[in-house]
Amino acid sequence: MPALPNTFKARLSAGDRMIGCWLGLADLYAAEIMGTAGFDWVVVDGEHAPNDIRSIRDQLIALEASSSHGVVRLPVGETWMIKQALDIGAQTLLIPMVESAEQAAELVRACRYPPDGVRGAGASLSRASRFSAIPDYVATANAEICLLVQVESRAGIAALDDILAVDGVDGVFIGPADLAADMGYRGDSSVPQVQEVILAALQRIAASPKAAGILSTTDASTEAYRQAGAQFHAVGIDVVLLARVLRETAAKWKDN
Predict the structure, then answer these.
(1) d(Cα 71, Cα 25) in Å, to the nearest integer?
(2) Which of 94, 155, 175, 237 is least enclosed, having the fewest CB within 10 Å?
(3) Phi-psi region of 184 (alpha: psi -120 to 50; beta: other; left: phi over 0)
(4) String of DSSP letters for 82-110
(5) 256 pLDDT exceeds 80?
């Protein structure tokens, strides 16, 4: 019995456009609710949300009951973190702050079992193998792991063509907020200088064999990024959406 198929990876390869959302509440109940919303994929955020390996695992379990694919964003691309995330059942990883082809290639190796990589082969202990219920997991898992790398700095943009040439990288995600900060526009990715770089990067990715990804939170940016070729496109953040609705509701009724 082989590793479970990664439907998200298969859809990326087929060229499907998929809409996603950020999951930052770091709670399995919130993940279960998110799974009912109809998004194709959701990011369980381990970089800026208060998640650890156990809470990420619990949210992946909650999402398995839905059609939303769980993408795990790790805080950094450390090999030991990648190993843990894959062993708890993540099939798709989003790694921040990738700035060179060499770094991307090391991430590919961290996601693969030897001799193609350096992932530890203790799958008999893991959720990924359904605790040894998938006997051929180690022999077949490499093909089902999807690696998405974030380019979100001037150095990353300069190395974009080299990163796109790395075999084993399935998609490149442009990070607008960090890119804007690195360009000197902290907190504002909407300035024309930043938008020009973002749109050009998305077009370059879309013209390559890799899938282009991004996060947008306004209708205008969502439409612009879609036109530029965004294929896996997050269009909201749960924390921001919740806070907005709560504040609007409180303001509406507070003085009535």
Answers:
(1) 15
(2) 155
(3) left
(4) HHHHHHTT--EEEE----SHHHHHHHHHH
(5) no
Strand partners, 42: 21, 70
Residues in the chain: 256
Rounded CA gap, 227 and 236, in Å? Answer: 18
pLDDT above 90: percentage of residues in the chain:
98
Question: Which residues are tagged catalytic?
Answer: 48
Burial of 100 (0-12, 13-18, 19+ CB in 10 A): middle
Name the DSSP class of 69. Answer: E
Q: Token digits for 54?
A: 């156990």
Tokens 């190993």 locate to 83
How close are the terminal C-alpha atoms of the chain, in Å? Answer: 62
Structural domains of the chain ordered from first start: 7-254 (3.20.20.60)
In angstroms, the CA 41 to CA 9 distance is: 11
Supply the mean pLDDT for the chain.
97
User: Over 80: is that where the pLDDT of 66 sits?
Assistant: yes
Q: How many CB atoms lie within 10 A of CB 127?
A: 15
Report CA Rg, the chain.
18
pLDDT given for residue 255 in this prediction = 76
pTM of the prediction? 0.97
